Amino acid sequence: MSLSYRDYRDGQHKTLTLEARELIRRFLRHALPKGLTRVRHDGLLANRCRAQRLAHIRKALAAPEPEPEAEQDHEPEPGWPCPMCRRGRMRPVRRISPRRAALGCAPYR
């Protein structure tokens, strides 16, 4: 099997020929086992210490501190927090009559 790719060292497009077994082996090196999550934010701007590191970087570069953003007084989104992800919001779609609810005709099951 042949793949085309760009070699960023010299900026040229090249072709790589691999056996199917080697292609699958290289592809599966990027797949994580079930239950593991890939960590994408690491290094200087990781969430854990971002504010402290940015202050240190600004000091090293002699850059001025950014002006604080104005507080915006806005209403929270209507609805309830999602019980699954806890980030999104659930909003009512329709009201169910007590009679239909007693019969088990809920819109979500």
Strand content: 5-15%
Widest sheet, order of strands: 1-2
What is the mean pLDDT?
78
Query: Outline, from the CA principal axes?
Result: flat
Counting copies of identical and different chains, the oligomeric state is: single chain
Give a structural overview.
This protein has 109 residues and is an alpha+beta fold. It has a domain at 1-36. Helix content is 24%, strand content 15%. The chain has three helices and four strands, in the order ββααββα. Strands 1-2 form a two-stranded antiparallel ribbon. Strands 3-4 form a two-stranded antiparallel sheet. A hairpin with a 7-residue loop joins β3 and β4. The model has no long low-confidence stretch (mean pLDDT 78).
Which key terms come to mind for this protein?
109 residues, alpha+beta, flat
Give the gist of this structure:
With 109 residues, the protein is of the alpha+beta class. 24% of the residues lie in helices and 15% in strands.
Topology:
Layout: E1 2-7, E2 12-17, H1 20-28, H2 50-61, E3 80-81, E4 89-90, H3 98-102
Antiparallel strand pairs: 1-2, 3-4
